[in-house]
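Protein in question reproduced for absentees:

***
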Amino acid sequence: MITIIEALVPICFAIASGYVIKHLANVQTNVWSGIEKITYYVLAPAILIDTITRHSLAELPWTSIIMVTNTTIFACCLLLAAWLLFDKSLSKPTFTSVFQGGIRFNTFIALAITNALFGDEGLVIGALVAVTMIVLINILCVTTFCLLIKSDNSASPSLTSQLTKNPLIIACLIGLLINILNIQPPKAIADSISLLGRAAFPIGLMAVGAGLELRRLFSDWKPSLLASIVQFAFKPMVALFIISYFSLTPITATVIIIFFSVPTAPSSYILSRQLGGDHQSMASIITAQTMLSFITMPISLWIANQFFIFNSNL
């Protein structure tokens, strides 16, 4: 537990720093929007390419990772769909926010925790876990909007556009291609990508903090509560149950639990605005989950450690 807390403290500090800098230094919202885009389109892809190209992938359990992650996500979808049928007071636009809050994940926080606990070995596994879920989650979220909300917004991105232009998916595919073909990039290029990648975590986490809206922390409490129960209780428990049927290494299993224990993605807000969802409740869910996750994540990881028992100091 001490190791978990020690790994989370710098992450909490980076997020808190972003919030404080934005408000005390009066850094405008459009500046942080630019920082988010740089992180999303440049820095995060750089660290994924750098990590994947520098490590062997031959012995990683691809099939098992896909089965565990996708089955867990589908289980969450079924639970949320059942709730929509049961709770008639929940509007369809608000449900789309609950849905995103229950199945999406914050890539920056997940990779930062994975790196803090397991270093490069964990990052390689984390990159593969992320890409197996990003594709499926984008399909499910966009499909949910299409089924529940009729939008006349011609600027709304199509599913194909969402997937083919996702920089994290593109980065993982580039890294995999370089690794599989055993291509050796020139040292100057490899070092440049590595340098950009090292900036991803601090800048990305500060951007997460800057995006928090504490004034909305207790508004829209019902959607926030429902999404958080799925995100922080149901999802990790289902993943633990499914993992028990696969022969995964303790590190791989724990990395999967990390990705199923982090708050939802800030990009959920953007998608909600683009596709006609309840973006105000989405903002509340993002803020509430980000704050709550630093209480729930140590608990989830401690429970996971009791199952996998590979490091008594975790």
Observations:
- The chain has a mean pLDDT of 84.
